[in-house]
Design a protein that fits this description.
Blueprint: E1 2-8, H1 16-27, E2 36-41, E3 45-51, E4 65-66, E5 72-80, H2 83-92, H3 102-113, E6 123-131, E7 137-141, E8 150-153, E9 159-162, H4 166-169, E10 176-177, H5 179-188, E11 201-203, E12 208-213, E13 216-221, H6 236-254, E14 261-264, H7 269-281, E15 286-292, H8 300-310, E16 315-320, H9 322-335, H10 344-355, E17 361-363, H11 368-372, H12 376-380, H13 384-388, H14 392-405, H15 415-423, H16 430-438, H17 443-449, H18 469-476, H19 483-510, E18 514-516, H20 522-529, H21 533-536, H22 544-552, H23 557-560, H24 571-574, H25 580-585, H26 598-610, H27 616-631, E19 636-637
Helix pairs in contact: 2-3, 6-7, 6-20, 6-22, 7-22, 9-10, 9-27, 10-19, 14-15, 16-18
Length: 639
Amino acid sequence: MCGVFGWLQASGTLDGQKLDRARAAILSLQHRGPDGSGEWRSPHAFMAHRRLKIIDLSEQASQPFVSQDGRHVLTFNGEIFNYIELREELELLGERFRTSSDTEVLLTMLRRYGTAAFSRLEGMFAGALHDTHTGEHLLFRDPLGQKPLYWHLGSDGSLVYGSELGSLVGVLEDATLDRESFVSYLMHSYYLLQSTPLVGVRKLLPGHYLRWTQGRVELSQYFLSRPGDDPVGLGPEEAVDEAQRIIEHSCRVSLRADVSYGVFLSGGVDSTVILDACRRFAPDVAAFSVRSEEPDFDESPNALAVAQHLGVKNHRIYSLTEQALGECFEEYLTTMDEPHGDPGYVNALFLSKTCRGEITVALAGDGGDEVFAGYLPFRGLAGDRFLGSLPASLLHLLHWSAKTFVPSSDAYLGLQFKALCYLQGFPAPRRTRFPLWLATTPPEGLLRLCPWKRREYFSRNGDTGTVFAYAADLFDELPGRSLQQRLLYYYQKVFLPEFVCLHTDRAAMRHSLEVRSPLINPSVVRFANGLADNVRMHKGQPKWVLRRILQRQGFPKSIWGQGKRGFTFPIARWFKSTLRPLLEALPADPALEGLVDRQELGRLVRGHLSGRHNAYRILLNLLAFCAWRKNFPEVKVGE
């Protein structure tokens, strides 16, 4: 787990001024790699690396890593978990190694197999390979997007890239805010797919690589797993057998490290499956949990029950006090690399900061819901056909009734909050219903907030050039597939990398902690995507396969049968108390000048503070965006 930065010139050389800016960029990534730094350069190329030592702690394994013949240079962020098996295979083919690192294995795989090597890797990674003979540069990112990589192609063909968006801001001649992607961000709480807050800066998509040759780029995809593509043909119990085998393998290779490690234990189904599997290979593995002072957000009783059931000797439970939560919220605002409206980001900062003194690597249960169908919308599919057939007038009445007669609540997933989120998906064609269910506000409400944007953009139909066009395209990629399969695909392609993986990576790396997610191993994803719908949700129970694993292991029903609870804190409640001054000041924040209608924003703030409507999601998005603007004041507002 590290930080990378690179700069390529298609013509001319990297002069002293550009090198100074490049070195400042890699220095900004020091929190990602506090254990060392390195750089490699030629007249036309600069590659730099910040290292967090995990595997092979020697200096010989430092990056940028140059091949023995001097032709290839590699720098990457992350880990290759199956590097031991790959190394053994390569040695049988006559390859010799001078380190015991996964870095050298990756370089050798790329030299021998080219981009075909990516399909052989298990791990999380993003980085670059430079060929000094041809000048060709290759950028790559792991299959599910656990590790980030941003890139920008200049008008002169130059290429700059980095592990964080902030590393590029100081390098760009004119960092300009992308107003179009800002509106989409408000709708979703994150920047979608390739988009970023900056004009001309893009994310390399998960499972893709980019080839740069003399100022020209070519993008290619090497990983694609879609629900229903490769059916496994197993019945329920056989599917559980195979799932347990694959997950245990993923956990075994994910435990490989030359430093201390542990498991993040929320007490939910996913983290319990991970801890249970890890203890087969590391019986003394430590577990780390959080106790919240807010009872409806506290999972620590379940975490304690899991640890006791497994006989975990080293189980640490950290109390997330109001003071600690306030400090982490302030850190969230002041260190944000990309606007992100997930309150769970704050909890992840707390856990990462607190346990970092004991471990350098943590395993987490990220991905269970996106891979095995665990979220509430999967249950909502049952009512899709009925509500989708109702006339608009009756749907309007249901919306009004939910707002009028169902009390607003700032409790975790309150009844009105859930009802309005679900009804938000109607009326609309099925191809846009999924993002509507997850949207922070109805598109009609976002139009009132951003009236400068053309009305057609907020269409619910998913037409080209509208806010949900990307979702319609994803839906149409799977003709003839079930709604469950299509919803899974949406979660895996959009929500998992940009909402879940992003906040896990940023929060952990802010405190130089590596977090690995065994449930996002490509082998696990491919297997789960091949399951039949009635196995994945057996008898209508979300995430049945993982629950059945725990049931077989003798866990009580209170663990395997529990409902979904997110790793978050009562931000809606805090907006009315501790964070009220921030919320009240939001409509006048200069960072929103020309971007939102201040009267409409004031109405949203007053409605939330009065308890009439829980609008915390859109308000947190705006608050996070304003904080990000303050972190990067050099970013200009575009036309």
